[in-house]
Amino acid sequence: MQYRAVRLRQLADRLGMTFSDSDTHGLDRWLEDFRLAARGRRTAITNVLREQQGLKEYDAYLFDYSYRSFGKQQAVHQTVFFLHSQQLVLPELCLQPETLLHKLGQLFGREDIDFTRFPKFSKQYRLTGTDEGYIRHQFTDEVLNYFTVNKGWSVEGIGYYLLLYKDGFLLPPEEVEQLYRRGLELYRLFSNQPC
């Protein structure tokens, strides 16, 4: 893992971001309300890259997040993009690739917000949240097109906070910049900010 930290520190330098080996920003507290944080125990946040763009623009983070699943000994590792901005006003939502278990859950009344005009999106993803009308408002044609083309991503949102990751997938250091760019693009789509 030392090699990974060195590579991510180099990436942070190149992008003009700060780097810390561990969570010195209190990210663990911010993540408490997200489903990601409820998946396991013994969580750890490492290799944190941070970019702050003004007080009113955004505060973006990239980090490695690990946890142990309940009932399993093996740790799950993944790379996460996290952004805080007052330009975002997101409903509580969770978007994840739809699995067979999700489809079986629908037979037993588990919710899934589908979009009839975007059947590919609805087939690829399970979208849930507390305010369906507001979620539908936030998932514009642009956002729906984005996820129809870019498969396999998980997104969580609550108010001013946005998470983006591939569940259970630790990105190689050379792909972390792509996650950063993808996260900023998603922020622009959800906040209607110019690129």
What structural class should be given to the helix and strand makeup?
alpha+beta
Q: Could you name the ranges where pLDDT drops below 50 across 5 or more consecutive residues?
A: none
Strand content: 25-35%
Strand order of the largest sheet: 1-2-3-4-8-7-5-6
Query: Counting H and I runs of at least 4 residues, what is the number of helices?
Result: 7
H/E element order:
HEHEEEEHHEHHEEH
How many distinct domains?
1
For the sheet with most strands, the description reads: 8 strands, antiparallel
Mean pLDDT over all positions: 89
Shape field: globular
Gyration radius, in Å: 17 Å
**Share of residues in helices:** 25-40%
The end-to-end span amounts to 34 Å
Instruction: Report the strand count.
Output: 8
Please specify the SSE layout and strand pairing.
Layout: H1 2-15, E1 18-22, H2 27-30, E2 40-53, E3 58-69, E4 75-84, E5 90-97, H3 100-107, H4 119-124, E6 125-129, H5 132-138, H6 141-149, E7 154-159, E8 161-165, H7 173-191
Antiparallel strand pairs: 1-2, 2-3, 3-4, 4-8, 5-6, 5-7, 7-8
Helix pairs in contact: 1-7
